[in-house]
Design a protein that fits this description.
Elements (H helix, E strand, L loop, with lengths): L3 E2 L1 E4 L3 E7 L33 E4 L8 H11 L5 E4 L4 H12 L7 E3 L2 H4 L6 E4 L4 E4 L1
Parallel strand pairs: 3-4, 4-5, 5-6
Antiparallel strand pairs: 1-8, 2-6, 3-7, 7-8
Helix pairs in contact: 1-2
Length: about 140
């Protein structure tokens, strides 16, 4: 794998199995805040858990309530290890910022264009605070 660097939006480092979403996802109504499972019935990865994964979101479906769902995922220990977004999603970032204000460990967030996300290898990856993405 050649060096890929994402742009840090909320600094931090993370490692975990990569989950590259095949379709946009709304956390509100699309993710169960108690389990971390994708519950959006028409999503191609319905039933897949995002908990502890490096979640690659090529696009999101906005809902102002998505930040609350992400906050519940963080509180319950079912949040992704990191968010890798095709474009910054202010609503999801707010969920992470509120969690940090409450003293909870929030996932770091990065920006990486969707076509580049698609080239990431399957399996375990690490992301550094500078956004360097490396296989584990």
């Amino acid at each position: 794998m050649s060096a890929i660097t994402a742009t840090p939006l909320l600094p931090g480092k993370a490692s975990g199995e990569v989950l590259k979403l095949e379709a946009p996802l709304s956390f509100w109504g699309g993710v169960d805040p108690k389990t971390g499972n994708i519950i959006q019935v028409r999503h191609p990865q319905c039933g897949t858990s995002i908990a502890g994964r490096i979640l690659c979101l090529p696009a999101t479906i906005g809902s102002s309530s998505s930040s609350a769902v992400l906050l519940e995922l963080i509180r319950g220990g079912n949040a992704p290890a990191a968010l890798v977004m095709g474009a910054p999603d202010a609503i999801l970032l707010i969920g992470c910022l509120v969690a940090k204000e409450m003293g909870w460990e929030a996932p770091p967030a990065f920006e990486l264009p969707a076509p580049v996300q698609a080239t990431l290898p399957d399996g375990a990856l690490s992301i550094s605070e500078t956004g360097a993405i490396l296989p584990n």
